[in-house]
Design goal:
By secondary structure, the protein is mainly α. It has one domain: Orthogonal Bundle (MetI-like fold). The protein has eight helices and no strands.
Length: 225
Amino acid sequence: MFSSRLWNLFIDSFPKMFIRGLTVTIPLTAIAFSLAMVIAVIVALVQFANIKVLKQICRFYIWIFRGTPLIVQLFIVFFGLMNVGLVLEPFLAAVIVFALNEGAYGAETVRASLESVPSGQLEAGQCAGLSYLQTIFRIVLPQAMRTAFPSLFNALISMLKDTSLAATITVTEMFKVSQQIVARTYEPLLLYLEVGLIYLIFSTVLTKLQSIGEKKLSYYGRKEG
């Protein structure tokens, strides 16, 4: 049972963390994920087109960011680059790292989806007079993104939770706020459960949006079929 002190602490701290989630955690996730999707599509298309030198560069990029921990990447970009005179704002550093990290994973998802589109689609587009790029962007890529949607949306939900790591480079998102309140009140169990509840609320909303998106894509897929 909550004592009156703990209940008052819960009521007082909830809006502080929730508002910081809306103003920092959500924007960080949205900006980083949007950039990650741009990176993922470009890298996937380069690999799909089998452009030799560029493909090797893309594979190297994917190897690095999939093979090293996210928190290490955050420390390298934020703390490490200071040694070479490149000082980044914490929020910007977090956006860059999350975008590059998720871009590497997303590129593999999109690449696999591109390869799942029947080769006849590409040939049919070119036979219809479309250029290679027109065929890719008008026919192949839309089908691939429909296939990749569930996996990419799961990655978005995962990124939302991973943004808590940004607290380690002083980004004052909602997990950082919870740490600050814990340091002042010495109530880690209550406050970490509380911030976990807020993450759960955000993730649940995204899961619901994912379900709606999948139903709409399924409907349009049947309609086109």
